[in-house]
Amino acid sequence: MADVTITVDGKKITAPAGTLLIEVCKTAGIEIPAFCYYPGLSLQAACRMCVVRQEKVPKLQTACTTQIAEGQVFFTDTPEVVQARKATLQLLLGNHPLDCPVCDAGGECELQDMTFKYGAADSFYAEPKNHREEQKWSPVVYFDRPRCILCYRCVRVCGEGMDVFALAVENRGSSSIIVPNVPAQLAPDNLAQLDCEQCGMCIDICPVGALTSGTYRYKTRPWEMNHVATVCTHCGDGCKTTLGVRSTSDGSQIVRGDNRDKSGINGDFLCNKGRYAFDFANNSERITQPLVRQPNGELKPVSWEEALTYVGTKFAELLNTHGGRSFGVIGGNRLTNEEAYLLQKFARSVLHTNNIDHHRTADYAAFAQSLAGTAGRGASLRDTLIAKAVLLVGGDPTNQNPATAWNLRSNVRHNGARLYIANITEIKLRRQARAFLHVAEYGYGALAEYLAGDDSTSSSVTPDSAALASFRDALRSEESLLILIGNELRGAELKRLIDFGLTIPGAKFALLADYANSRGAADMGLLPDLLPGYTHIGPIDTADPASRIALEYHSPTSPGLDLLEIFDAATVGNLSALYVAGANPVARYDVDPATLKNTFIVVQDMFLTETAVLADVVLPAANLYEKSGCVSNSYGDLQQVKKAADRAGVRSDFEMIVRIADKMGADVRKLVPFGPGSNSEGISADMGQTRGAESGEADRHAVWLTANNLEPRLSPFDPSAMLDEIQRLVPGYKLLRLQLLSGNDQHLSPAAVPIRDDAGLVQISNRRDLVLPANDTLFTSGSLTRYSASLNDLQQNQLRQPIIQIDNKTVVD
Amino acid sequence: MPRLVSHPDEVIVLKRRFGQGAAKIDRYIALDGYAAAQKAIAQGKDAMPGWIIDTMKASGLRGRGGAGFPTGMKWSFVPKTSAKPKYVLVNGDESEPGTCKDHMLFREDPHAVIEGTIIAGLAIGAKTGFIYLRGEYRTLLNIMEHAVADAYARGFLGKNIFGSGLGFDIITQTGAGAYEVGEESALMESLEGKRGVPRIRPPFPAVVGLYGGPTIINNAETIANVPHILLMGGEAYCQLGSERNGGTRLFSISGHVERPGVYELPMGYPLRKAIYEVAGGILGGKELKAVVPGGASCPVLRADEIDIGLDFDQLAKCGSMLGSGGIVVLDETVSIVEFALRTIKFYQHESCGWCIPCREGTDWIKKTLTRVYEGGGAKKDIETVQYVAENMMGRTFCPFGDAAAMPTLGFVKKFRKEFEDYIEGKKAGTPLMTEEHILVGAGH
Amino acid sequence: MSTVTKSIFTPELAAYFDRLVTVYPLKRSALIPMLLYSQDEVGYVSEAVIQEIAKRLDLFDLDVRSVLSYYSMLRTKPAGKYNVQVCTNISCMLRGGYEILDHCKRRLGIEHKQTTADGMFSLEEVECIGDCCSAPAMQVNYEFHDELTPQKVDEILDEYAAEDRK
Ligand SMILES: Cc1cc2nc3c(=O)[nH]c(=O)nc-3n(C[C@H](O)[C@H](O)[C@H](O)COP(=O)(O)O)c2cc1C
Ligand code: SF4
Ligand code: FES
């Protein structure tokens, strides 16, 4: 809309006509208080806090519903306006408990802030307040009715935002109350409860302490925590989560996860995992001492020095005796990019092997190769919020990529985006879809063929050929299309779909995966046949820039063993050593433990997983919330991970890899280019000893440097040194350091270097499909699930629900 | 069943068919029924809407639901063309305490409401009309449903009304007990099957109303006037009333009068005469103490303020309102403190709860007045009540807040002394309630 | 459209509902009438009523609960066969509404929102029912009774009791 100029408190402001006055004022730095107004949710005008005086209008107007027009004149701070707000607060406080010191929201309460501002704390009512008992609606959602100010934010965010509609208002007048969808009389224990996705958005959005989090309430006060913004470890969307951290006797403990300043890639959103499932870190089963298997078969705690020396010596010995081909290295999806990169570099340049892989949760190699030679085709998560048309093939974002689902819903609601969905099951997002195509089982390949123009596959996609035809017509008529692809599509099928998409001029693509850094693990080259940035492995050609990495690494020039081949090699006695960092392949790929009995196994993990129990050495690892670095979400949005918590005894995977390399006698400076002038020779590695510190020290030092906008590269445990190299060598990782350091996400789209037709190179069509999605739901997160009390509670809670309502209703407006 | 009353001073337009069995369609037709609709149709398709609206404008008819908005003007706001269907919505929610005039209309002349609805539809190009009665009027709904069925049977409703080639349908239903649903936007919500919470305005119903289509909402009495106006002519109707207040209106006179009832009086008729002559004076020859002139939400008038004409402007000038025409007469025995408490108890019970000032304000006024009533009051409580009411005025989401605050302010301002005396133990009047009535019962 | 195969309502009411949902531009509009008619038949809005109506209208049960709890005529607990609703709002109060209420309490031996032991009568104090000019007034199952005196109330209640015996 055209710009108009209005006057607010004597100040001229120009903004598009029709913009809400409250937003115009916010942008202009004029603060208008509001409880019920929340950007992006439907308007209420219920709290009456945002009243302002408009010239020539008899009554005070609500800024939250006033759309601006040329020449309007407003006053937002007159005695009349201030008095109106004060009176409204006084009325509210009449029934509101004034026990802020013990309220969970104390210090973070909008009512408290406003009362402070308008000085309305004096209560002139002599009547007692209405008291009601607090209610537990789910393991994570508690409701304290007297604190509720009926702003309806929770009701709206649950319905409009989440499409769950588990909250509503009952009764009327001063008896009005927010209620959950399972009334007491239907609940097993006669207590009302919530049957929902447990996202906690209602808690997040509650301006007061009426809705509180079961995992956080009464644990601490907001000002007693350190608030560290980092990236959630649980799914491929990579939401920003702010962890509230408190010191404890053995480090520091995370007590809260939330979406504090809403400044992340996830905007307003955070799901239950980002909010509550940080607690695996505090699990008592956590390993905090290195364990080495004794002759009697037992794993015994030893010192770090002893464990590392043992691993280093043993690796060096096996390398000497059996060669790099007898090594297998498996990395994880929750490692940082720096760690994943370092791990493969260690494998390739120190162990001299390409036998490296990871638990693949989506076929990023085929994805990158399908997009080879294109530019700007990779979608960012942010595109899901603005794309005019979206095609979703496969996947179930509601369960697996909740932020993606949230964005798609918001996009449909706010911008009328056209969402097309093809899926073999009736996923919940179909409720927002303009067209939903029910695809037959195993029908995605046929669908891709059909979309690409092969009508003969129609019947393999669906019996409803008319629906299919109109689905394709609708897609073809779109000028730009955001194509989101579930991990079900791989290899040739995936390529086929992308080929179709590439015929639409403005099409962009994203492949949805499971964990915080599934994408990064692949991008960083935790693959036997591809170097970082999907650079192919082949004969070295010094003239070809694609050979740069291999040249620097001096790595083998033929592809290594993939994950299953590594275990095959073990079965036939050809695997002398297996090095696993942050993965549980034994459970995931159902490996027979017997096959590994003659292999020297080193596992870095937080817990004694099925893989770790087989190890000769188990090294206690820090998790993603305990280290720094960066990760790439499913979309290729790169974000900084910040160290939030500390756990005495554990070390980051990064440090462990470097120390093992050191103990093996490798040149650590070659592995991690650190220190001033790190390209020059001669400066010896500072392994932390000179400062007499343990590993954490180096990290803390790095934090200090980061805070001062310096780039620390002073120790070999410094991930930013590795990032230098990633930036320098990995195609597509042209990131802006300043952006990263200031906490912004950056979209990277590493498309593979086009493959030459040289014989011997693995092509998409005959590459082995090793993708094994975690198929996580809202309440699972791979192996971590069982170590997270909150996820377990939520699963239990879900099981005992008498009725599950959230899926099958259409909501009539 | 409320009794039919009459008085020589009445000017009969709307009540013409009362007591004559007009609920039967043949009887209604015999008494000029459905002639107005046909007269409108006879104007020809193109001229008809303009003719109806001009006639309505000329009639000076102002809405009988409470706010007194000129009806012809309201109808003219509806856009000529609209992508979404247009609707007529008849407000028969009549819940303002002291008002029972629509009740009489639905019972005595249901077809007049139907015919008026048809004409309103013709005026704005709507194909569907809704007649929404309050839930307590189930027996009246039955009468209305019969009448609608009869009108369909005669071809007055349906695909081709009066053979004009135009279609019009009427759907009748009731609410389920909620005063706030009488507010026009809450009424639409209720009709759409939702909680009776009002809507944000703008957009106004004439532009975005029921199911998102342009909608005119009128009180049942307003609508029942329409056929009469078309038949007698706008000017002729207008002449019956006072300046800028066309025609006659139904006044429900209740409380302490000898002959309570629904009387049709010309707009501007003197209030004193309405009480002392039309309604037969104060019950049992007692003294008049106060009058609530237009339903419970209108500020009270003291006995010395009743020399005033009953129209929108004259009552507004003296700080009250004509409202829905429900005149409640209080004799000397009434305790204003008690009456004020009963009034706010109603509003506290009926507030929809959407916005803070109304939800909390009605509750605190009720609580404070209850304590005063029970003898635990202090002078400061009068201040508190006044402060809260003043801070509700004009601050709430819908006019309900004003409707609750205005009478409260009226009582404490005009009878402040009585409140003060009461607090000091000098209680005026004969109590009608007991403490038990305050603590249990409606609103709990 | 949702189909309800096993209705808890009488065939007549179920058929009426089948039609009612088609009458309005949006079927949700049928909600409040459906709640009222269900209450008339079942005696109150039971959990089963909520669930069937929600199904018929494609609503969440919670939606139905939220709406139903707004309206004061809808109840989620059974009432007596004859629900006596006495108005005590201003016009009725001035003409003895509270006396009528008290008389009913004594006569029936029950309080506000209670039901007689035999399930015959329940009593409720209500806000204005739109019969102000014939105050004091009351309703018994939608039927108006006005210009009440204690004596008249007795006659009316006797009549209902007698009707029941028939
Ligand atoms: C709280 C409240 C209750 C109302 N109740 C009624 C009512 O019961 N009947 C009615 O016709 N109008 C009622 N109104 C007025 C309506 O909002 C609306 O102004 C009226 O129906 C318009 O019709 P009219 O122009 O014919 O008067 C009420 C208004 C408010 C604010
Ligand atoms: S003023 Fe507010 S709470 Fe009162 S009825 Fe209107 S919207 Fe509801
Ligand atoms: S923010 Fe405007 S009324 Fe609440």
Number of strands of chain C: 5
CATH architecture assignment name of the largest domain in chain B: 3-Layer(aba) Sandwich
Largest sheet composition of chain C: 5 strands, mixed
- Going by CATH, what is the homologous superfamily of the largest domain in chain B? NADH-ubiquinone oxidoreductase 51kDa subunit
Strand content of chain B: 5-15%
How would you describe the overall organization of this protein?
The complex is a heterotrimer of chains A (813), B (444) and C (166). Helices cover 28% and strands 16% of the residues of chain A. Chain A has a 7-stranded mixed sheet, with helices on one face. Chain A is globular and about 90 Å long. Mean pLDDT of chain A is 89; it is low at 677-697 and 802-813. Chain B folds into 2 domains: 1-335 and 427-444, 3-Layer(aba) Sandwich (Rossmann fold), CATH 3.40.50.11540; 336-426, NADH-ubiquinone oxidoreductase 51kDa subunit, iron-sulphur binding domain (de novo design (two linked rop proteins)), CATH 1.20.1440.230. In chain B, the strands form 3 sheets. Chain B has a 5-stranded mixed sheet with strand order 6-5-11-8-9, covered by helices on one side. In chain B, α7 (138-153) links the parallel β2 (128-133) and β3. Chain C has 2 domains: 11-70, Arc Repressor Mutant, subunit A; 82-165, Glutaredoxin. In chain C, β4 (138-140) and β5 (143-145) form a beta hairpin. The mean pLDDT of chain C is 95. Chains A and C meet through β8 of A and α4 of C. Residues 34-37, 44-50, 62, 64 of chain A line the site of FE2/S2 (inorganic) cluster.
Which characteristics define this entry?
heterotrimer, A: 813 residues, alpha/beta, Ubiquitin-like (UB roll), Alpha-Beta Plaits, Rossmann fold, 4 domains, seven-stranded mixed sheet, five-stranded mixed sheet, 16% strand, globular, disordered C terminus, C: 166 residues, alpha+beta, Arc Repressor Mutant, subunit A, Glutaredoxin, 5 strands, binds flavin mononucleotide, binds iron/sulfur cluster, binds FE2/S2 (inorganic) cluster
